[in-house]
Design a protein that fits this description.
6 helices, 2 strands, 6% strand, mainly alpha
Length: 139
């Protein structure tokens, strides 16, 4: 008697499905990394040229091109997108989607001139401030 394979429906985030604690961050980093990768591949550049364009050493380009996004922070990936002439907009709204009027939209162009760690810290600060504001409006 053969046993039927068991399938489980995905949540849409493989890292969540695997039970990883930082699943959302890993998923975001993966999505950003894949977008950077696609833009670079469209340009048909050599890794040396990619290194100059992104402002990173060639070994880091190699890691990026091999999909090793865990070696790069979200801020660095956002900086790469900016250097690849991509407009980046951050939409912040309640997760439940009940009150869309509390959505905040931020164009990150001005922030992207800063160091990637500064960008990440600015985004965290903005998200925390908006989260506090949303909690106050819900009470």
């Amino acid at each position: 008697m053969t046993q039927e394979p068991i399938f489980e429906e995905s949540s849409g985030n493989v890292f969540t499905d695997l039970g990883l604690a930082d699943a959302d961050e890993l998923f975001a980093r993966g999505k950003l990394g894949i977008y950077v990768l696609r833009l670079l591949k469209k340009r048909n550049l050599e890794q040396r040229q990619m290194s100059e364009l992104l402002g990173i050493p060639q070994p880091e380009v190699s890691h990026l091109m091999n999909g090793e996004f865990q070696r790069l922070g979200e801020g660095k990936l956002l900086l790469f997108l900016k250097r690849l002439d991509t407009e980046i907009t951050l939409h912040i709204r309640p997760r439940n989607g009940v009150n869309q009027s509390t959505e905040t939209v931020i164009l990150l162009s001005g922030l992207m001139k800063a160091d990637s760690n500064v960008v990440c810290e600015c985004i965290r600060t903005l998200v925390n401030a908006i989260d506090r504001r949303n909690r106050k409006t819900q009470t």
